[in-house]
Amino acid sequence: MYASLIILMVIAAIILTTLVILFTRLRTMSGIRHLGGKLYRVNYRTNYKLDKLLAKGVKNVPELTAFASKHLYFGYPIDVTEQISGCTSFTATSPTGELLAGRNFDYPKTEILLVHTKPRKGYASYSMVCLAHLNISEESGVTPKTLIGKLMILASPFACVDGINEKGLHVAVLELSTAPTQQKYERTNITTTVAVRMLLDKCATTQEAVAMLGKYNMFSSAGSPYHFLISDATGNTVIIEWPDPEQNMVVLPQNYVTNFQLADGKDKGAGGGFDRYNIVKETLEKSKNILSEDDVMKLLDAAKAEYNGKWGTQWSIVYNINRKTMKICCYTNYDTVYEVQKI
Fold first, then answer.
1. What is the pTM of this model?
2. Is residue 45 helix, strand or coil?
3. Would the CA dihedral through 286, 276, 37, 133 be positive or negative?
4. Would you call 190 exposed, middle or buried from its count of C-beta atoms within 10 A (0-12, 13-18, 19+)?
5. Which 8-state DSSP code applies to residue 17?
6. Which of 17, 140, 192, 336 is in the most buried spot, having the most CB atoms within 10 Å?
7. Torsion angle of the four alpha carbons 196, 94, 85, 153, in this order, in degrees rounded to the nearest 10
8. How far apart are CA 47 and CA 304, in angstroms?
């Protein structure tokens, strides 16, 4: 009798847990909203198991998709793409003393997703996802409005390429053209987009973010290296690079970056985006780094990548790091601005 009661209680607990898991996934999928054009947003309310992922470690896309398959899709296999193209990022100070961050993300045309996450053990944040990385696009017939598209968006927390959290930490990742980063210290491995997720969830300041990155082996699994622009509410902005693909991480005290290596070494200057870099540099120097939110968007317009039939600027976004707000323009349509209020 007692044993039967224990078995029934275990079965009931399993059923309840399964129902809760299903509910959070359905809640997330039903929370996808179309903001206009190719821009969507989602209030993500599923536990994406970041701590478990960081304990296990991943060093390539297959390992990341295997983890997502197990913990988000009940073992059902999924297919994602990790690739980041040309981009521009910088910070400036508003005339009223607020820190602003500008970001252009350049890639082939596809749908865009703004993700709001609120982990139980971590900071709430907004972050941006190029949905082509989750194999969602109108060309493929899979959109955020289709069932498959909604299911794929469950993996979106691990596909973010820039964002801001409730403490004012801002992170943006940009592509380089040298050897992929594959650090070989006795540390846990992480990939580029996992690092973005980790920093937004767990760090309140640039100093904390730099320290946390130094505890992991970075692997840029999409065949290219990347560097990060990281800033916080105090104005502390740095560029993080891995000029030696197997070893050291370098911290550069600079507040603007495009797609070539800045750190000293044999590959210094390797990459592209010099024209965009010079436009940003000259504007910031001329203004003494003081720009309004409108000025930041105008600078993003000046540094945009015109669509050439293959790729161009997907989104331009102005982050107010002190207010934790965003203004987003898609596909260089600077007449239509989507405003996102405080986290």
1. 0.90
2. coil
3. negative
4. buried
5. H
6. 192
7. 50
8. 36
Query: Which residue, 4, 197, 233, is CA-closest to 117?
Result: 197
Task: Give CA angle at 31 (28, 34), nearest 5°.
Answer: 135
d(CA 331, CA 175): 19
pLDDT digits over 168-226, tens only? 999 999 999 888 999 988 899 999 999 999 999 999 999 999 999 999 999 987 778 89
Report whether 194 contacts 219 (CB < 8 A).
Answer: no
Q: What does the alpha-carbon distance between residue 337 and residue 343 come to, in Å, rounded to a whole number?
A: 18
Among 116, 147, 100, which Cα is nearest to 284's? 100
Distance (Å, rounded) from C-alpha 210 to C-alpha 224?
21
Rounded CA-CA distance 238/257 in Å is: 10
pLDDT at 14: 40
User: Could you tell me whether strands 112-117 and 39-44 are parallel, antiparallel, or unpaired per DSSP bridges?
Assistant: parallel
The beta strand positions in the chain, using DSSP E, are 32-36, 39-44, 87-93, 99-107, 112-117, 125-130, 160-165, 170-175, 188-191, 216-219, 226-231, 237-241, 250-252, 256-257, 259-260, 271-272, 312-320, 325-330, 338-340
